Amino acid sequence: MNLERVKELADILCAKGLSAIEVGEGENRIRIEREVSATSAPPQTAAAPVRAQTSQAVVASTAPEVPDGIHEEISLPGDFSNLIEVKSPLVGVYYAAPSPDSETYVSIGSKVKKGDVLCIIEAMKLMNEITAEQDGEIVDICIKNGDIAEFGQVLFKISL
Q1: pTM for the complete prediction?
Q2: Please, is 118 exposed, middle or buried when counting C-beta atoms within 10 Å of its C-beta (0-12, 13-18, 19+)?
């Protein structure tokens, strides 16, 4: 994966207002993340700081502006025109996996069916499973493992 491809992914991340994007080409995988405040809209002209993580290194950079004359569309998995947000029904600690040694319930690109467990929210020593309300594909995970989930906070974005 070349540097131009990484820059294009960073542009998409900022333009769509996503907090993370993960793409694989062959054996290579890249995940680009940025911090997004709950009230922020997608940036119009300003470059937003992003963090790119590959299996070998973590790279800090800024998303470049797209030069005039470039109109190439990038095909990514998932349909971004029809997203639903899975919001936290309670305040508690977000856990992405059933235990620290286990794999996460879902990751970006995971296909989910109605009723599949997406995560656990721990509140007052009770483990509450959060399940998918519809079939779809996970296109964004908006919270980090171990963070406090607020009531109504978006946890996942699912493409139908």
Answers
A1: 0.52
A2: buried
Are 22 and 39 in contact by the 8 Å Cβ rule? The answer is: no
More confident residue, 47 or 33: 33
pLDDT tens-digit readout, 52-73: 444 444 444 444 454 444 444 4
Spatial separation of the C-alpha atoms in residues 129 and 144, rounded to whole Å = 16
CATH for 83-159, options being 1.20.1050.40, 3.30.360.10, 2.40.50.100, 3.20.20.150:
2.40.50.100
Any idea where the domains of the chain sit in the sequence? Answer: 3-62, 83-159
Compute CA distances 81 → 16, 76, 129, 158, whole Å: 10, 12, 27, 11
CA 20 centroid distance within chain: 4
Q: What is the pLDDT of residues 80-97, one digit of tens each?
A: 568 899 999 999 999 999
